[in-house]
Amino acid sequence: MPSKAIQDALETARLPQINTELPGPKAREIVDRDAKYVSPSYTRTYPLAVKRGRGAIVEDADGNLFLDFNAGVAVCATGHSHPKVVQAIKKQVDDFIHISGTDYYYPHLPALAERLSRLAPGDFDKRAHFGNSGAEAVEGAVKLAMYSTRRQKLIGFFGAFHGRTLGALSLTGSKAKQRAGFGRQALDVTHVPYANCYRCPYNLTQATCGAFESKGPHCARVIEELLFKTTVPAEECAAIIVEPVQGEGGYLVPPASFLQTIRDIADRYDVRVIADEVQSGMGRTGRMFASEHFDLVPDIISIAKGIASGLPLGATVARSELMNWEPGAHASTFGGNPVAISASLATIELLEDGLIHNAAAMGDYLLEGLRELERKHEMIGDVRGKGLMIGIELVRDRKTKEPAASERDMVEIECFKRGLIIQGCGSSTVRLSPPLVIDREQCDFALKTLDEALTAVAGK
Question: pTM for the full model?
Fold first, then answer.
């Protein structure tokens, strides 16, 4: 297919178009070069070599078109190369590309800080610090919690992913291989089970764990009833860090009482609550922040991924009275880069101008379709999600709930062969985190493809 025709097809395509074997010859060449020169620590399930993208469609190096239901791991909230975001980036590049916000002033920093302060949960004054990634946003949140409390201990949750820098890695409790080989952890963190109601680690139900009672669920109460009385004295605990919807752990949606009980416990002991909204924030769940679904008001919130439609930017937003550290206590040369902030301001306008609403509507539509697939396919053990943050947990047996990890990987590959880009999380969960621009036709294609992939894997 001629280059111009490929470009035209990309601009107008709504659904996939596979023209070669996968991977094609150009993609294979890229994969081979990557294997020789790039760190082998990266994880890839299938050989997608991207050349360009528009909206929810990406084109690979051989001209094949795919429907993207991963969005660069929940980063491309406004789709690939949204014209308004591209325009904002180009305009800023023409003005200037960088001047360190650590040392100088420019209007972009307070403009985005003010916007985020108003958008973040909580009817109080807030301030923002900017970094380059989700891990940096988490590092900033933890440093601020320690600085403002003069305490050192932290509480996190099994299944959590907060980043791979040494500090954030101490908080991450997702996979053993992420920690293996790096020695003792940098921070003093105690992990407890997250509210995974499908696989309750305490073998309780919401009816028996306290989730429907004022005392709150057992998995939250264990912080006060066990940790504070044994290994984590409350007066030494700086913060509890929690994902309002757990991402890498399996796209787990907790009962609202879980997060509200954590908030109540923290208030009683002057412990900070950090909401890691790196993956769940910026409209992903049908609200600007997932915390809003649960009436959770954190003291500190970590934001990244969808904040700038693909440009590297992270933000730590906190109560103004907490973010009162001295000049030089925490800073970043590249954090708050003016090009990234321009992309972020354009992104927020698009989110507020209909994309958050679309995420909620398309999320409901997908969940309805997935529950129909759940009735058809015994391999689907659970379907859950908020907005366009949806998890499909696969099992080998619905009674024993044995995770179908290898089958999940096979479903990913079968979807790739059919032109649908998805990714896994947790032990055996398929995650759907498409751009917030998707429509019903694209949802229908995704549901059809998942149906076909599950049928193919079940027959092997």
Answer: 0.95
